[in-house]
Every structure is written in structure tokens, then in C-alpha cells.
Design a protein that fits this description.
A five-stranded parallel β-sheet has the order 3-4-2-1-5, with helices on one face. It is built from three helices and five strands, in the order E-H-E-H-E-E-E-H. The chain has helices at residues 35-45, 56-65, 108-115; strands spanning 6-10, 47-51, 70-71, 85-88, 96-98. 25% of the residues lie in helices and 16% in strands. By secondary structure, the chain is of the alpha/beta class. The protein has a single domain (6-115), classed as 3-Layer(aba) Sandwich (Rossmann fold), CATH 3.40.50.
């Protein structure tokens, strides 16, 4: 059986609106418009995990309140389970990372131009 492709999705600013930034570390905001439907569409085609620096149990509880089945207790090397969101602070292998603060790397020259004043 072929392994399904895996997508990594950042939580704050991509799924959680994050209107007050980190604030006090709680998960306090509403979903980003289209996030819930978007995650469901991605989960139809990919194994999806949510990547966060917040407490994974708090993020999983918030996502469960949004109607998702979530896991936080996973120590494997690859996430391959479709239909369930893994919530983790680990950077697992993925075909793509969906993140609002990403800089796409194509070369060090481009990266330095993007990141240095």
C-alpha cells in the first residue's frame, strides 16, 4: 500500500485567527475565514498534521470544538493517517508546509535578500 502524502499546516494565522498574537498562550480566537472548510478539503486528499508552538492539548481541544478528530500522542517518524488531525510541535516530513510566516527557499542569495535589511 502506497503511503499517502502528508501536509503540514501551521496553526496560528492559518487556522486560528491569532488577532492578539501570542497573548497569554491560550487559544482564544475564531478560525481564519475558510480554514475549517479548507482543512476538511485537504484531509480528503492528504494526511494532515497541525504544527504549533502552543500547548498541543489546548490546540487539539480547540480543533475538536470545531468538529475535528485529533491526536496528540504520536511518536512515529511519519504521519500517514487520513481523516484525523495530528497536533504536534514536531516538524515531521511533509510534501508541503502551509504557513503564514514562511519564506520560500530557492537559494541562499534569495533568502538573504528576503530576510536581511
Amino acid at each position: 500500500m502506497a503511503r499517502p502524502s502528508t501536509l503540514a499546516v501551521d496553526f496560528d494565522g492559518v487556522v486560528h485567527a491569532y488577532s492578539r498574537g501570542w497573548h497569554d498562550g491560550t487559544v482564544y480566537d475564531v478560525p481564519v475565514p475558510g480554514a475549517i472548510e479548507g482543512l476538511r478539503a485537504l484531509m480528503d486528499e492528504y494526511a494532515v498534521f497541525i504544527h504549533t508552538s502552543r500547548r498541543v492539548d489546548a490546540v487539539a481541544a480547540w480543533l475538536t470544538d470545531q468538529g475535528f478528530d485529533c491526536r496528540t500522542d504520536y511518536d512515529g517518524e511519519f504521519w500517514n493517517e487520513r481523516g484525523v488531525l495530528l497536533v504536534t510541535n514536531r516538524k515531521l516530513p511533509a510534501v508541503a508546509y502551509l504557513d503564514d510566516r514562511a519564506v520560500r527557499f530557492t537559494s541562499w542569495n534569495q533568502a538573504l535578500d528576503d530576510l536581511l535589511p
